[in-house]
Design goal:
The structure is a homohexamer of 341-residue chains. Chain A has 341 residues and is α/β, with parallel strands linked by helices. Helices cover 33% and strands 23% of the residues of chain A. In chain A, α2 (61-72) links the parallel β5 and β6. In chain A, α7 runs parallel beside α8 (220-230) and α10 (298-312) crosses α11 (324-331).
Chain lengths: 341, 341, 341, 341, 341, 341
């Protein structure tokens, strides 16, 4: 049977000056629509997976444009709910070299942030699904979004749907009076797959990462095991390794633990960087695709994730507009960027 | 002595698709910063008037860009207060012919809307001023903005500063539980100059415009006199006459009453229309300039206002980037648009 | 039950210099995707009609982009067949005033032109449909396209689906050795609705329009009756009236005959013209919408068609990106193009 | 034998904000190269006439770009001389409606202005020519340019080459201490064809236009005869009639006198105006083409001139990028701007 | 005597999304005109060589624009023949880092592909020439193009004109039922200079590259000698060395054999890459220039070729818009990219 | 007391093709305004220093735009004098890799070059200042500019204002008959801070750099001491170290001598390079800021200078639009260019 994935989260309008201009130099903003969970949905649609994106959008021209962009990329939009006042925005100034990119969030009071618990009939939305994906951004934007996220998770769990989570910690969010450790432990207990570094995981779970048996990388499993103990449904945990040499030069690798073994992927140099926003989401989508299509091949899932993450850096916009064939080519070792003609 | 004008209101970021594209066709937005009262300030600066714009802006890159744009045009920005979370936005889709322009407001919870009464030390701000301008937009955005506007007005009145008001009714605002008639009568009682059509004026004052002595245009003074009675400090009332033949063709005239006589300006055809947003503000600024510089020549003030309004339609953006010489040329009857070389 | 419309035809890539530049001045081409029948599909999707577009596209990046654009606008794309070598192109240089627009066709050997009879399983494609739309362009591009069009028409007729046809005569096509009168009479005999002027209709049917009883406009029905006699399934015939005052000024009206009465719509001035390509398709879509939703109100169907045609002139691109509300506003007499805010 | 035309003058870089932006709104300038006499050359090349443009350009990247643009349009560039320091510039702000276009000249000390008498070997340059064209701009830019212009004129006259002149009065030029009447009478005495209104002609000749026998338009020939007396080689005098309704609406006609009869062309409405710069040069080129190819048909020459002038208003840039077929179409009465497809 | 070069081949329209956008993100295409042999012509014109480009272009606006672009760059266009239906197109998506560029060809049935044997009067075209250049693309596009290419080669050979060939193997071409080894051996037997790697050369000649005496790089001459034996007129064979580290980083060197000695050029790093299309043509043009101007200095010819190839990577478009001075600077060892001011 | 800086120099219009296009490929120029001394002023304003820029601008639209750009960035413009004919221009073609950038100057006869001695009332201009900055460009553009520069320097010296100088040698200037050694010694004797490499310093002072005691880097102080002897008011001398690996890769360090000790900053890699113009001015401004705010910490001043210089390479335009926080981050060792969100 065709696997059907549902991703749930906020869709934002991104406004960015052209090229490497600073905000004060801009006379126009390039616009794209994106968000952690919609980026995962677009990636999966590109890989041929049947996927629906669930969110709440304002019933105005801007909300409709956001939906149309998802539809253009083959993501199902029929389960989107309409209401609220505004589409959240983030302004992005793209850096270069030693000058980092800047993000100005303007997403408070968005339609997604003002969603109420119970707005979405999750039983119905998830009825044909085999996979549900959410990220740590949704519980960070408002208390009611966190509540609705929990509703979704519980429904998915009841329906025995696989649940994946990208921890996605954003320090500028979590402004509504709760901290991650107040909210995330309950949500994460249902997760079967978690993406995120261990520091973030333990921080969100309100735990101390220090472990008596940890000495060096070889004893990494003891840390992961501690994570698995906190998240009883956890099957796979993965981390993007990212070393930032500069805004234009990143190094990308990955680690995956399946409860038994550690899998690693070689660190790849990524330079130049066209756009690094959404590279974590690209990793997540590669991982999901691999776990769906190659159930017993964790190494391949990790390789897909890392390749997707690397290629995302060459794509403008939030979403990773690459094909499976392009992932395979890079996994196969061809990073030559040569032209076929 | 050099006249010093203070205008007070909200500054917005305008995001508009290029040319006549619909929102769903846009891959970028042209950006300008504007707002009714800042537009008046820019116009006055263009005419050589010393002018400061007072508002509240968020202390982030976007707020700074908004301020820099005012400063670029020679408007004083030292009295701007910094705080709050966001710069308000309006999305503009420019129409053509029978297709009108569309505006999507996203200005709730802006730094200006969340201003608190007493944020600004009006005594200090107004100490060198001889003129204070506000519009009906500020009391429409939030209760606290309305309160701070009243503080400003009272301080100006106490300091015997001339107060001008553009009624600027926006039906999509006034969302905070009050209607114009709850708020505006108190504010308008201090106004010395009011711009707005009589319907709007009576609506805002909560009065019925029907008057027993009104029969036709010749008895227009009886309506204005009723307005003057409601606004004890009123000296001059003016109205923009606007007939919209289509998004690309407007007809613009004006009426002014000084408590004794009606002055009118011939209706001018304006076609094509490059951008009609801010044309009322252009009228207001022309009027203020005229009333400052030609105290006893109401006809000239009206002519300046109408010429400014007409020329604004040829300028992209909210602000009327024209010179006094250009106003004079049009008042002098030269609408030929010919090149001098 | 929800009406389901199928439109069938070629989708082209349009390449146009920016603004009013001539080809020799262009350093880039703006690109849109369009075509008579896909334009009808996009319009209907905008009006909330369930609609699928059927065509044949090359399985390369350009073909995929064309499909994605349809999908973005909510047109069903699942019935598109993939094959062939290329997407047809037309180059468009937009005129102004007395300088007309220029079209350079480069559509020979497109995937649609090389479609073979039997490529599409029409029984299956049309199974849920209640309306089938085709135009005179498809039989003009190649003999095999004409054959496949006939297959579609016959299948639709058998399934008792309403068939609408836009005559769409293009003198630069019909290059494969057949003339309209060799091909069109057989195809048109199944049409229930025909859009096109009478000269074109009689020309395509290989008939002489001269009629002994025709004297002036009042005897127009005698001509239409002759058309109805040639097309035994015809129920409604309509014509766009178009007077071209210049590339920037058109006058648009319409005539409709339902076998009994002549309906007319007032001629409207359309100026300026942003883009007149696709205005006939906009008329067609308005007509179809009206005939579907207001079965007994031919005047309303005509009004919708004319309003849609007028508004298309204000929209860049082939497709008429307007809403039903905008049609209603214009039908209601509001051509003022005013802003609501 | 193929007619060979030589035009002589200055080539300028035009820098213009996009669309209708004011200078202070521009973040980029669109660039074109143009000038009265080069515009005539490009027009003639478009009409299939063999034509060389003679000027002096700086030997730097900017000068080379200017030359390449001429070459692109098929104008001979082998006779251009290289030297001097800079290419002259003019900044153009395009107006709309009642706001006229603005020109800022920055052309002093250009390579053409600093040309020395004798720089060009006119005998050689003109050896294959049958027509020489110059305009009143060249003697206006510097004394040495005026001298070199006279050299050219004398050489052409000696070689019995037809000489045409566009009076092209520019009040912002003539800054070098001489006035037109000091310089132009000597130059104009060799002209066989003069384009310009009579006021300008008499002003440049230092004569009073008032004539005892002139009463109304019917006695126009008496004025022209006076002009002919001052210019002993004059055969044809023509004038563009231009009424400026606004920057976006011009009315264009023409008058021609051949020493015997007055010919006139109907005034045509030109709206909207894409770019009116160079429309006089377009008129001139149409006239030259007509006088070369239809020696005895003055009316046709005038019609070509007026049609070319009208169409220029629809073309961006200085040069009139239209074809003979387009002129013929407009002369034939088709101003419908319709698309052929 | 001035050397006169003729290059013969197809001219294509290149359509490319802006910057690094993927096809599905493009709302416009940047356009340039190019092709292997026209690129060589433009390079030679830049270096001051008299050069004509011969091709067949459609007589429509697009064909004319292609010609104008050649003319702009100083390439002779008088020998171009006009006819056929269309200009071939290639769509280019520019890659970055590990994501390679993509090319979609749409060049079937172009005016050049449908050229007939005998269309061009080669005796006449070549009469003043001293050098004729063709590439392996022309015989790859259609059988008749291959035939006309052979006609040209034979005529050149008879006229004792030097013949150079770039092997330019394109696997996506050769679609007309012949393979390189069916066609190329006859054509290559007249070549005096061949550019291409040995694998391609032997493949096209239908030979096995394996040679009993070849062991390592030192015995490279034995392979070249085998090539010389297959091509009896061969004097010089050269190869571009290219190592693709990624789409943004190339390494470029070269090898040349003159029948006696191997010449090599140091491999240079080229990063970043602005546009690598046409870098082989740039190498070819540098080689031709060197062989024409420095007959006995093969090392210099190779150095010029490699320098030109490197610099091409910094230029947008197909053609290598650099000067001889820039080549010399790089050959001289200055790759610092410093500004002179 | 707030330190007040005055910088004095020429403001130029920069015209540059988009991205990496060559001049001959440009259809538009991006425009910025800049110049060595205005760049210093903008930097200082960004760092919160009160600063005025003094220059002479033409009273036309272009001059006004230049002033508005300074005002936008918070630089005081009230002391600018208006007059003269033109704003100087420089055309910039941005290089990449081994292809260097090209500059074409067109700045002769600018309003600044034609300034007369005594135009500016320096006593008044400098009355509130504590720092005066000039560079070697001003005395290079014309004799009268050199004279006025001397007037300024003398006035500053009399007022005991700190004087800083960037040697800024431009070989393409100095065209008015004087060489640096004729002019600079007198000007430099008043300088308290000099930025420039020692070769340039000695060249400008007309001295031989060879020194008997100089052996290697360790004896660098002997050279600096010689410089200090020639410039009796000198307190601090600094040099930017710049190694150009290519147009896209620079290495930046710095050296400072305070009469006692040598301070050095580590050489940093800067790649890619967005725009290197103005990086020396950025260094200068960082130095000035450091010397003003950290009087006794020469190492910190140098670090600020080097960090500012590095970051400038990531900013498009002449001026270094970075904040103090960004300088601090880089000085603190964070060159990761990571995003905070």
């Amino acid at each position: 049977m065709m696997k059907k994935v549902i991703t749930f989260g906020e869709l934002l309008l991104r406004l960015a000056p052209k090229e490497y201009l600073r905000f004060s130099q801009a006379s126009s903003f390039d616009l794209v629509y994106g968000g952690g969970e919609s980026n995962v949905a677009v990636s999966l649609a590109n890989y041929g997976v049947s996927v629906d994106f669930v969110t709440r959008l304002p019933k105005n021209y801007i909300g409709e444009c956001a939906m149309m962009e998802m539809r253009k990329h083959g993501v199902g939009v029929d389960k989107i709910v309409w209401g609220g006042e505004r589409l959240g925005i983030y302004y992005l100034e793209v850096g270069s070299g030693a000058r980092g990119s800047n993000v100005v969030y303007d997403r408070a009071n968005s339609s997604m942030a003002t969603i109420k618990r119970g707005t979405i009939n999750w039983k119905e939305v998830l009825q044909d699904a085999t996979w549900f994906h959410w990220s740590g951004i949704t519980p960070a934007i408002s208390e009611s979004a966190a509540q609705e996220c929990l509703e979704a998770i519980k429904a998915a769990h009841e329906l025995r749907i696989t649940i994946s989570t990208d921890l996605n910690y954003r320090s500028k969010l979590w402004q509504y009076g709760k901290t991650p450790k107040d909210i995330m432990p309950e949500l994460l207990q249902y997760s079967n797959i978690i993406l995120g570094d261990l520091d973030t995981a333990f921080f969100m779970l309100g735990k101390n990462k220090v472990h008596p048996d940890y000495q060096d990388e070889k004893s990494l499993p003891v840390l992961y095991d501690a994570l698995f103990q906190s998240c009883p449904n956890l099957i796979t945990a993965a981390t993007t390794l990212r070393y930032s040499i500069g805004a234009s030069h990143q190094q990308i690798g990955g680690v995956l633990y399946d409860g038994k073994s550690i899998f690693t992927a070689d660190v790849k140099n990524v330079t130049p960087v066209v756009d690094r926003v959404g590279s974590g989401d690209a990793f997540m989508a590669g991982l999901i695709y691999g776990l769906i299509h190659n159930v017993d091949d964790q190494q391949r899932a990790l390789n897909l994730a890392v390749a997707a993450c690397c290629l995302k850096h060459t794509i403008k916009g939030d979403a990773n507009l690459v094909t499976l064939e392009e992932l395979e080519k890079l996994i196969g070792g061809d990073a030559s960027g040569s032209i076929v003609r």
